[in-house]
Design goal:
There is one protein chain. This protein is an alpha/beta fold. It contains ten helices and six strands. 28% of the residues lie in helices and 10% in strands. The strands form two sheets. It has a four-stranded parallel beta sheet with strand order 3-4-5-6. A hairpin with a 2-residue loop joins strand 1 and strand 2. Helix 9 crosses helix 10.
């Protein structure tokens, strides 16, 4: 029923064809239902296809509050949304404030791959801000600056002037060897801690497809491997948290 909404836009310098949230009303979005994102790897999850709505941020906060857990929102493509008159920052902070989340000890982290929106947020909130980092490339709003530069000891000093932590691609903490095993940890965690930054690498997933060679269980990419062992290796480097699709394994590894 939304076939006519399919279009092509340029976002962060890349042409993308599909459907875009800004072209829908909330009522229209609420008619859609979630589906498993990786059906080729997570066939069992397809049993839940079609059951769940797209939640609003307010609904997520209500659910989190009811279960006494925190939230870790990411501002997606903030420069793009600002360019079309839909900036994230003010409504994000307004909603968090409405739920009483205003201090640094609130169970909230705000993350972004971009730089300038975090800098803009810094004087407006005491909530913890996290600079996300990819293994390669540059922030969409700072083509003059690479993530590799940001992850150096000197680069992290600059990040520490506007953020409370970094969320690096996990390969920036422990790169893999040529054959796919975990290699020697970098100095990223130690360098970040020296300037007061927390480190939360991403993303740990239990399917063989995502795991280091030694943690795989056979050759089927869909099979479940030993993600706890991978997590423990990263926790041993001193990271302060991890992103994972697999909560039970993450909690077990932390314990």
């Amino acid at each position: 029923e939304f076939a006519d909404r399919k279009t092509t836009k340029t976002i962060d310098g890349h042409k993308m064809t599909g459907w875009f949230t800004e072209d829908f009303t909330l009522a229209e979005l609420k008619t859609l239902r979630a589906k498993e994102r990786l059906p080729q790897l997570r066939k069992d999850n397809m049993a839940f296809d079609g059951q769940f709505e797209i939640p609003t941020f307010e609904e997520i906060l209500t659910l989190a509050q009811a279960h006494n857990v925190g939230v870790y929102p990411e501002t997606k493509h903030p420069s793009y949304f600002a360019s079309i008159g839909l900036p994230h920052e003010a409504p994000l902070l307004a909603m968090l404030t409405a739920f009483g989340h205003v201090t640094k000890d609130a169970p909230i982290f705000i993350q972004s791959f971009e730089v300038e929106n975090l800098k803009a947020l810094r004087p407006k909130t005491k909530l913890r801000l996290i600079q996300l980092m990819e293994e390669k490339g540059s922030p969409a709003d700072r083509s003059d600056l690479t993530y590799t530069q940001m992850a150096t000891a000197e680069g992290l000093k600059i990040v520490a002037t506007y953020a409370d932590g970094v969320g690096p691609n996990k390969a920036m903490v422990i790169p893999r060897t040529l054959i796919g095993n975990l290699g020697t940890p970098t100095t990223l965690v130690a360098d970040a801690h020296k300037v007061g930054l927390a480190v939360h690498p991403w993303t740990f997933r239990r399917e063989n497809y995502f795991l280091p060679l030694a943690q795989k269980s056979g050759i089927d990419p869909r099979s479940i491997g030993d993600v706890e062992a991978e997590m423990k290796a990263f926790l041993a480097t001193g990271v302060d948290g991890i992103f994972s699709d697999n909560v039970a394994e993450a909690v077990a590894a932390r314990r």
